[in-house]
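Section 3.1 - Work completed
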Amino acid sequence: GYASNALGTINPVKKMTQMAHQAGALVYVDAVQYAPRGPIDVQDLDVDFLACSAYKFYGPHIGILYGRYDLLDELMAYKVRPASDELPWKFETGTPSFEGIAGVLGALEYFEWLGTKFGGESKIRFEGDFKGRALHLKQGLAVIQDYEYQLSKKLLETLGSVQGLRIYGMDDIKDVEERVPTFAVNLEGVHPRQLAKALDERDIYVWDGNYYAICATERLGVEDTGGMVRIGAAHYNTREEIDKLGEALVDISKL
């Protein structure tokens, strides 16, 4: 994956793609967790396929696949016989979800608005290579990325101050640009489900378990003990809300 949905680590996709291509392999990237966190440039990454879903970037549950045209054209589609053999229709399951497409457009227009409203400083990074909607999308996602770096720093400071709390994965503030603000934690002496419920009672919403990242929880040795509690921030969260989280964790640790 581009970013871990459990530990928040951003993988070096471009470097990994180069290594895979040198070995003669194709590269398929799951970008679901990263898509709402920063700009993605499939040409620069040189990936063969990249998939995500709009529900992660504030749209509906609809799948999105980028693929190199020559590879998509070559692949055999599992489809009904009357369906077209032409791209992209051979991969569509009947009538497209027009309402889903409209929802995706709404999410993209929101990113564009962020870019035009708040992305002035990031414009210089992209205007040489992009223009119009593409430029505004890049600006919007760059604004989100820069703000979420600050949220990650705040979360690391806050979580690190709670006695008995363990952060899994990258926990050094200097490395915030190599992770997204998704944190997996456990509190000593408290089952993950119990901690999640205690936070829920304080109107703080988290997830416990393995979040389908079962290889990670098995490797970390927590799969059989309830997994971990996942705490995530997004660009609509504030530093004050993170302070509230910290206060709640301290209170729970004293119970």
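Second construct:
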Amino acid sequence: MTLDYPSSAFSFMLFFISSCLLTSVHHSKVPPSEKSTLVNQTKWQYYGTPRTSGNLTVTWNHQMLETKEVNIEVWGYHETGKPYSSSWTAEWKYLYTLKRSHPNRGEFTFVPTPSALYNDWELGALRISSSTASDGQSNVAAIWSNGHALAWHLGEDFRRDSAAWATEKCHQWDTQERDLPGFLEEIDACPCTLAQARADTGRFHTDYGCDIEKGSVCTYHQGAVHCVRSVQASPQYGAGQQCCYDAAGSQVLTGDSIGGSTPDRGHDWGAPPFKKPPRIPGFSHWIYDVLSFYYCCLWSENCSVYFKHRPSSGCRRYHPPRAASAFGDPHLITFDGINFTFKGLGEYSLVESNLTLLRIQGRTQVVKLLSGKEGTEALVTGFSAIAMQENYSDVVEIRIPEHSGSLEVLLNHKALNFSEQTWMDLKGLFLSTTPGLNVTVMFSSGVGVEVSRWKASSLSLTVLLPEKFLNHSQGLFGTINGNPRDDLTFRNGTSLDTDYSTPEDLFVFGADWAIKNETSLFTYDTQHLLDKYLYGPKHDPNFVPVFTPSEDPTDPLVEQMVLLCQSDPFCRFDVLTTRDLAVGNGTKLSHQRYQHLLESLQPGSSERMCQDNGLWSGEPTRCLPNAGSSQQVPPLILTWAILGFMSLWQ
């Protein structure tokens, strides 16, 4: 159920009113129980074309509206004015009422008739609200359908010859596209492989219509098993990217297959400031990328026109991000691959960059053992909180709350509740979470941060930096420049020798990156945090950890450690220092995830060259079966190839 606020109808951000946190949710992410369903979606979208007529039915959860009777209204969306000019505006408007005072039993069936007054409105949604409200009344509890093409209310000219009507619309769109500025060079290049696409979490996120984690039901992307969308819209035009991959992990392109992915003039998830086209979440994407697909591909046979303007992007311009990680006791692996252990107690700078004013900070606490007597501590530390900000974005902090084994996420020092949604679009960043297990933060620069607590006593952390951060980072994760020898650099510019540094040297190095209260991003909302971290030293000089654990062959724990850890040095280290196999197992799992991430980010072959020896460079190529580029599109196959509307994929 939603409230209709016309003044903020297209706001796609969180905002505070007094002490109340209101959430504006992209319509594709509204839970199915809280929106209406267009029964037989195919019939709705083809209504009026040959052999598609009769009744249409919409259903809803009647218990969501505490009323005996409802009104079913038609609302429309369109954009007017010259694109990319000050006159370009969006309008979301009540059009007319289909049925008044209909019994609220969760279903309404009707026979559509052309709407002479409103048949130029081709995109819209149904709103179901109490019959006590007046037509089009704002600020009322309501259940909405998904946005959809209003084929069923188009004029008699469409019903007489839908193919001719759509062909004319397709050619009008073709003419308009040729007059609009190109956006293809501005959007992110696609990752070359499926593994890269899933690993580059700072720049790409799962396209819910083709998700390998949910069985790869890619009805609208023939030949693909998984698709991703760019997280951020392009800076000037607000455009979006979509990338799809087959079972072998290779890209599926429109030049090879009708199931290939297509870029978007309007990013499906929108872009700041959101209320201005083409940055309206969902609807701008519909206007410029979806309705045109109906015109050219679904209602007529002019797909070549559509793909001329929406060709799949290759990966020649793609560069994988660089990864750094921290986990366990804690062990840190820098962007250039140096690994070391730093067991300081306090708050430290992990990454700083003047390029985007990026700051990622970590707080450590003494490790509590996972087995044995509850609350037992070891003479080692682990990360208990990670805080971050870029430019003037919101501040996000992920922490292990006191007396809790879960994760808590703070937004600008206030706890977030994920009971309604697990994806949030915040100021300067996106946030996605599996509640209690992991949190992924995606900054507007493409920086990705993942914080998790998988069977571990402490947090594990991975940071992904795009190529533009080369020579623009410092902190415990080092300088990202391809030279590991300068990774252990102090604030004053001097460096430790990476080959001859002792654990004590590394302890001094880590202490140098302690933050100050005036630069801290952390929240201090308990007496313990106030006393220990705000009023206490940022690096506790009185805490002396175990630097080098001894391995006694006669120790019964050693045999169990070898069986668990095998050759993993971090797992063995943590078992010996904590004498807790559960802690070591958590470290081992975190290290394995990091290793898998590095393997996934390895470059693929973006091109193949004929070499002097007569052989081709790069990975072997292969043909896609039945991957013609015919204009004839099966009615159900490509219907939503370019959409981001979850409900049509469920």
